[in-house]
Structure formats: structure tokens, C-alpha cells
Write a structure and sequence with these properties.
Layout lengths: L1 E5 L3 E19 L8 E6 L7 E22 L2 E14 L4 E13 L2
Antiparallel strand pairs: 1-2, 2-4, 3-4, 4-5, 5-6
Length: 106
């Protein structure tokens, strides 16, 4: 995490994470997955034709957030993360996540 701006009650931050390993996903199997899956099993939660599978991947997460002190013991936090997963066989996954939290320290 890198802090870009900070006062006693306000903070702006960015973050970056990189993971080299595997991702797990579920879909109906297609030709893009042949020969690149490292594991596969039926996943009936998402329908009778769905399968959960693993792929080797390089995943990166970019984060941007703000934190505002509510008082001496708590803060309100808002962040957005962008996930970029580049997996074998040209199977790429992208997602954005928005999170908001209230943190209180006793």
C-alpha cells in the first residue's frame, strides 16, 4: 500500500498485488479450456452442464481507496479494486470490486 495524501483524519491510498499460480472458475466447458486446465470437477451449483476448473494464471490487483476518521477509535473506508487475471489458453478474467467498511478499535 502506498499513501498518497494524509492528514490527521483523512487518507488516500493505492495498492498493488501480484499472484503467480492458479485461478478457479466455473463455466460450461469450451475448447479454450482443452489442454490448459490443471483440474476439473462437476459444479452443480451453477447448473447441470457446469464444471469448476483450475488454470495457471498471473493475477494482478490494483486498488484505490480513501479512509476518513469518524472519531479517535473508528474510520469509514471506501475502496475500489480492479482484478486482472491472465490465464493459460487466452482465458482472461477481469473484475471490479467496490468495498465500504466501518472499522472500530476498542
Amino acid at each position: 500500500m502506498m499513501v498518497w495524501y494524509s492528514t490527521r483524519s483523512f487518507l488516500v491510498f493505492t495498492g498493488y498485488a501480484r499472484h503467480v499460480g492458479e485461478v478457479v472458475s466455473t463455466s460450461s466447458l469450451n475448447s479454450n479450456l482443452d489442454g490448459v486446465m490443471t483440474a476439473q470437477t462437476p459444479d452443480t451449483v451453477f447448473g447441470t452442464n457446469a464444471s469448476a476448473y483450475r488454470l495457471r494464471s498471473v493475477t494482478q490487483v490494483l486498488a484505490l481507496g480513501i479512509s476518513r476518521a469518524a472519531n479517535d477509535h473508528s474510520s469509514l473506508n471506501l475502496a475500489v479494486d480492479r482484478l486482472l487475471a491472465h490465464a493459460d489458453g487466452g482465458n482472461n478474467y477481469y473484475a471490479s470490486m467496490l468495498s465500504m467498511s466501518y472499522v472500530h478499535a476498542f
